[in-house]
From TrEMBL:
Pfam families: Flavoprotein (PF02441). GO terms for cellular component: phosphopantothenoylcysteine decarboxylase complex. InterPro entries: Flavin_trans-like, Flavoprotein. One of its GO terms (molecular function) is FMN binding. Residues 11-187 form the Flavoprotein domain. It comes from Biomphalaria glabrata (Bloodfluke planorb). The gene is 106074913. This is Phosphopantothenoylcysteine decarboxylase. PROSITE patterns: PROKAR_LIPOPROTEIN. SUPFAM superfamilies: Homo-oligomeric flavin-containing Cys decarboxylases, HFCD. Gene3D superfamilies: Flavin prenyltransferase-like (3.40.50.1950). It comes from the Eukaryota.
Length: 209
């Protein structure tokens, strides 16, 4: 039908941190690219997350801390963490390791990923999938920090129990990729509904990124 409007491609920002579960980043990207309409995807990675997947083999842009500083040289230049925050319709941090969880819970912003989160627009969904060894997960500070993020309005995609990379079996593994994808899909549909089912926010369409 000529009157039918094409759904704009949603903009999904993936954040990843130095958990071994970052080995699933290629699978997460690939699975999200199967969504309809096909989303645009960008990734913000911490330095340590880069140990777990090959940045150069991904078919999406992977931003790291050096991009933040290399793209800015004078006062008119865009600030990458602000541009990404405007560009994204939803953000999923998967995996969220104990270190970055603690930083976000305390408002720290000492790298590109935590700056995006610190500048986040609370009208847009932000999801996080914790991933850590059971001993780290069971430390009481973990529950306190996860609760704090949930109180702020971020959505937890809870850990699961399984055999972990270190050989231990227990709770703390990142949720499986299909679970992450359905959480993103769900957040996009409620987000579109809130936006009146017509278009995504103008910020995501007008950003030069
Ligand atoms: C092989 C390896 C696997 C790791 N896996 C995890 C993990 O699953 N969860 C976690 O919280 N920390 C894990 N760590 C520790 C983090 O990488 C470390 O705390 C790091 O400082 C995190 O930095 P980032 O949050 O800036 O990425 C792992 C470290 C190594 C060497």
């Amino acid at each position: 039908m000529a009157s039918e409007k094409l759904m704009p491609a949603p903009h999904i920002l993936i954040g990843c941190t130095g958990s071994v579960a970052s080995i699933k980043i290629p699978m997460l990207i690939e699975s999200l690219q199967q969504l309809n309409p096909k989303p645009e995807i960008k990734v913000v990675s911490t330095q340590h997350a880069l140990h777990f997947f090959r940045k150069e083999e991904q078919n999406v842009i992977i931003y790291t801390d050096s991009d933040e500083w290399e793209t800015w040289s004078s006062i008119q230049d865009p600030v990458l963490h602000i541009e990404l925050r405007k560009w994204a319709d939803v953000m999923i941090i998967a995996p969220l390791d104990a270190n970055t969880l603690a930083k976000i819970a305390n408002g720290l912003c000492d790298n590109l990923l935590t700056c995006v989160v610190r500048a986040w627009d609370f009208h847009k969904p932000l999801m996080f999938a914790p991933a850590m060894n059971t001993c780290m997960y069971e430390h009481p500070i973990t529950a306190t920090q996860i609760d704090l993020l949930k109180k702020l309005g971020y959505k937890e995609i809870p850990c699961i129990s399984k055999k972990l990379a270190c050989g231990d079996t227990g709770f703390g593994a990142m949720a499986e990729v299909p679970t992450l994808v359905s959480a993103v899909e769900q957040s996009l549909s409620s987000f579109n509904k809130n936006a009146g089912n017509t278009s995504l926010p103008s910020t995501s369409q007008s950003s030069g990124l």
